[in-house]
């Protein structure tokens, strides 16, 4: 059986968003190994389709990559927050839109080799425009792009964020346009 049993745990760092631990584990073959694990509360991302068949993407500077990235609207789960409630909140905060129709597409681990962050993907449509309400430390630009414009930036390799790539692949493969 493929498993690893934690036999020792050391807290390395506890921050506002993540916790880092060093684990000693017993492998299924009986040998010991060490793992450095980032614990994350999870996140949501939202694939949107406006009534005009436009996809909402945001551009946001990401310090970790030192780049401005194209992304679908997204955000971190608060403690014990329902992922759908988080998705609704983040869509309104980042774009000003409120959706009537919500569908969970699925979920995935962003980097399972060292991080437990689970990202829930939602599809939102039948949108009505409200007002943006960004977090104090959040600066981004929102764009409504045609499907052809989305395809173009994908083909140019300009989508470098994995959650956005996954969401847009779903759009191109599954959604009837």
UniProtKB/TrEMBL annotation:
Q: Write the record's keywords in alphabetical order, separated by commas.
A: Hydrolase
> Do the record's keywords include Transport?
no
Domain Nudix hydrolase stretches: 38-172
Q: Specify the domain of life of the species encoding this protein.
A: Bacteria
The protein's required cofactor(s) are namely: Mg(2+)
Q: Which GO terms describe its biological process?
A: nucleoside phosphate metabolic process; ribose phosphate metabolic process
Q: Name one Pfam family in it.
A: NUDIX
Q: Which GO terms describe its molecular function?
A: hydrolase activity
Q: Extract the PANTHER family matched here.
A: NUDIX HYDROLASE DOMAIN-CONTAINING PROTEIN (PTHR11839:SF18), UDP/ADP-SUGAR PYROPHOSPHATASE (PTHR11839)
In its UniProt entry, what is this protein called? ADP-ribose pyrophosphatase
């Amino acid at each position: 059986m493929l498993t690893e049993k934690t036999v020792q745990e050391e807290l390395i760092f506890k921050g506002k968003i993540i916790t880092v631990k060093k684990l000693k584990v017993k492998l299924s073959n009986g040998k010991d190994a060490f793992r450095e694990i980032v614990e994350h509360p999870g996140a949501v991302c939202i694939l949107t389709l406006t009534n005009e068949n436009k996809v909402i993407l945001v551009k946001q500077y990401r310090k970790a990559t030192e780049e401005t990235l194209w992304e679908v609207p997204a955000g971190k789960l608060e403690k014990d927050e329902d992922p759908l409630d988080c998705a609704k909140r983040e869509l309104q905060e980042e774009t000003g839109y409120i959706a009537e129709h919500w569908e969970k597409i699925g979920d995935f681990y962003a980097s399972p080799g060292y991080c437990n962050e689970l990202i829930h993907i939602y599809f939102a449509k039948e949108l009505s425009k409200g007002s943006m309400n960004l977090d104090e430390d959040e600066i981004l630009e929102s764009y409504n792009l045609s499907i052809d414009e989305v395809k173009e930036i994908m083909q140019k390799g300009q989508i470098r964020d994995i959650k956005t790539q996954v969401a847009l692949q779903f759009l191109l493969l599954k959604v009837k346009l």
